[in-house]
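The records we work with from here on pair a chain with its fold. A complete example follows; check for yourself that the lines match position by position.
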Amino acid sequence: MRYVGIYNADGTVFGELRYVVGKLRGTTSCSLCDITHGKVRPRKDFFSACADAAIEIELLHRNEATSEQLAAAGALPALIAHSEGEWRCVLTASDLAECAGSPAQLISRLQA
């Protein structure tokens, strides 16, 4: 199964800057970002948790995702899976928020 996490942010320089400013002001959030990134860079414990569980998750910004991926995701952020020729949402925005920034919680939910 192929997993893709879609951030609630655009992957452009302006999009990243807008997200950081919004995050600092408390007007923007992305629970997937909280799981995969620290204050400045990607979290090593996220990649370790994925490797330990033998789960690969491709991470995309919303402007990098296809229309089919975005349709399956619904409200962002989301984690979707590709299986049998179609995309489906496996963790919604609220599911990701319930992980409370924990990579281990994300992996646990995927394994359940």
Remarks:
- Residues 25 and 91 are 27 Å apart (CA to CA).
- Strands lie at 2-7, 57-61, 78-83, 86-91.
- The mean pLDDT is 92.
